[in-house]
Structure formats: C-alpha cells, structure tokens
Amino acid sequence: MYPPKLSLTVDALSHGKRIDTFLERQLRNYTSWRLQRIIRSGAATIDHMLASQTDRVFRGQTVGIELLEPPDKLLLPEHIPLPVIYSDHWMAVVDKPAGLVAHPTGTMQHGTVVNAVQHWIDQRTPFPGLIRPGIVHRLDRQTSGLMAIALTHVSHVNLSLSFESSQVAKTYVAIVEGNVKQDSGVIKAAIGRAPTARHVLMSCRADAKAKKPAQTNYRVLQRFSGYTLVSCRPLTGRNHQIRVHMAHLGHPLVGDEFYLTRGEFKPFYPTEDDEDSAREVETGLPIRRHALHAEQLEVAHPVSGLWMTFRSELPSDFAATISALSSGHVPAVR
User: Fold this and answer.
1) Taking the model in full, what pTM does it have?
2) Nearest Cα to 211, choosing from 227, 228, 194, 197?
3) CA distances (Å), 46 to each of 3, 66, 120, in order?
4) Which of 69, 130, 162, 275 has the fewest CB atoms inside 10 Å of its own CB, making it the most exposed?
C-alpha cells in the first residue's frame, strides 16, 4: 500500500536527537531536506501525537511517519551476482568476487558491491529504498572474499566501531612470490602514504607520510617451487596492509599491480579514480589478479553481541593456481 507508513522505536543512540535527525539515520536514502518537508506536512508523529521538525525524541518512544515522497538519494540498484552467505534484520555478509569495487567512488557510481546489495535489499522489502546498505569495511577491487554489510543505523554504528577498534578477526590467504623461510612470523612495520603522485599507494619506507602502526601475523600453509601459500591475519586495518607487508618482507603477492620488494613500485599505474585497475594482470598462472582472498571473518553481532564466524571457499582462479603450483607446471618467477 502506498504511501508506506512506518513505525520506528527510538534507540539509545538517538536519545535526545531531533526527529529529523533520527529519521535521517533510519532512512538513509532520504535527505534531511526531504524528511523535514514530510514532517512539516503533518505526516510524522511521536507516540501518536503530531510532531514538528524541531521536536526531540527519546529512547523508547515510537515515531510514526508516512512517506509521502520517494527517497531522493537512492543508490542505483543493480542485479549483480553476489552471494549472500548470511543475513538478518541488522546485517548481511557477502562473498565478494574479485573485480567488484566496494562502493561508488568518483566517476564510478555503478557496478559496485553497494549497488548489488541495494538490489538484493529492494527485492526483500515492500518499497525500494527503505533500507540503504552501509559499508563498514572494504576489500580492494581485486581481492575476493567476505564483507560485512550493515542494514540499520544501530548495526552500522556498532559494526563500524568493531572494525575501527580491531575487535574483529580477519583471515586471508595469499600466494606470494619466493619461498618464505619461516613457518610463521609477525610483521610489525608502520604504513603510510607513499610520496608518489598516486596518493593511494602505501609504503613502509621511512619517507612514507602519516605512518601508523601496523601488524600482520602470517603462517606458511604450503611451499611450491618459487612461490608460497600463506595465511595472514592483520591485527590492524591499514590500506593495502597485507600487500604492503608481504612485499616489505620480500615476498610480493602474485599478480600485485603496485608493490615490489624494498618499498619499490611497479612502473605502470591505472588512471582510474579508484586505486585498482579492472584489467587482468599477466602472471603466468591461472589467476589474473593479485592473489589475495578474505577467507574467514569473525565478528560480534552488532545487536546481540553473539560471536559469529563466517568462511568463504577459495574462488576457482585461486584454487586452480594452487593446483597448477602443486603440479609444478608453472614458469619461473619473473
């Protein structure tokens, strides 16, 4: 039935906020300007009493609103194959394939994880645009694997805090060049922006800007001729952390477009707004991208606090590469 009528309970995070601020948090596809106009038209109530846009709401109150107008900043929903391995009212966990950017950026406003999730949500709600997906962490375009997505304001705040404070456990698998000598180790090396024309490139070198502490624990899973399969657990969340740290150790990821040993960079950089190119990378192996997969994600549920563990199977290009390396029919590392 149109227009949709919603009944929302004020949460602790919104206690004492103006009603338009509360509604903007709950209805993230609506601008505050449009919500204020709807409130002024007499379509909003607080505990069944007509509300004005300057009224404040308090925990436990019920806010009703009749959405007389459609959302005005709706993300473009796109039917993009994206496995959803878990979902409830508050969050979803998706298994991102390589090649998808996490969210719209710059001139790239479609073909992203967020566009795919918006379509998935719209198929499960009575009116498109009632729920807007919230990105709380990201994976590089060519990294495959698990991403948590917030579906409500409360879950977005709580999940964001969990990731910002490193109260999550993330495990990646990577294939790196060369034979890693130690069976396990800890890489503690601060990461900052490299002093290059491309601000998104990161570095452990002394001349890196705005360096922040970073730690990655790694464990060797399997050694091949000239390559090593490793498991990595970043204890911090710096941009490109695993890629930079493994290159710093002397073992760049197979297929990495940017990072070489000793803080050096490959000479060609993409010209897109985002830091990862969509093009394939010639590796001499079945995988045509940097060999990094977010295999496991452990996180507390943003509402119940229940500790949850999610796992992702290796994608076909990654598994085929391991098979090729195991057979020994691969070219030498360049």
Assistant:
1) 0.88
2) 194
3) 19, 12, 31
4) 69
Cβ 102 vs Cβ 116: under 8 Å: no
Torsion of CA 26, 31, 34, 39, to 10 degrees: 30
In 3D space, the residue among 280, 282, 333, 291 whose CA is nearest the CA of residue 314 turns out to be: 291
Q: Which CATH number fits domain 169-327: 3.30.2350.10, 3.40.50.720, 3.90.550.10, 3.40.20.10?
A: 3.30.2350.10
Catalytic annotation, pick one of 140, 256, 274, 317: 140
Peptide bond preceding 97: is omega within 30 degrees of 0, i.e. cis? no
8-state DSSP, 282: -
Cα 101 to Cα 108: distance, rounded to the nearest angstrom = 9
Q: Length of the chain in residues, anyone? A: 334
Quick: pLDDT tens for 74-93: 888 999 999 999 999 999 99
Angle between helices 19-26 and 32-40 (to 10 degrees): 120
Q: How far apart are CA 269 and CA 213, in angstroms?
A: 26
Task: Give residue-wise pLDDT tens across range 201-240.
Answer: 999 999 999 999 999 999 999 999 999 999 999 999 999 9
What is the spatial distance between Cα 128 and Cα 120, in angstroms, rounded to a whole number? 10
Helix segments in the chain, DSSP class H: 19-26, 32-40, 113-122, 153-164, 241-248, 316-327
Confidence of residue 56 (pLDDT cuts 50, 70, 90): very high
From the candidate CATH numbers 3.90.105.10, 3.40.50.2300, 2.102.10.10, 3.10.290.10, the one assigned to the domain spanning 5-66: 3.10.290.10
> Is 140 labeled as catalytic in the residue annotation?
yes
Look-up: residue for tokens 């300057």?
A: 54
Tokens of 161: 């805090």
Q: Are 191 and 212 in contact (CB under 8 A)?
A: yes
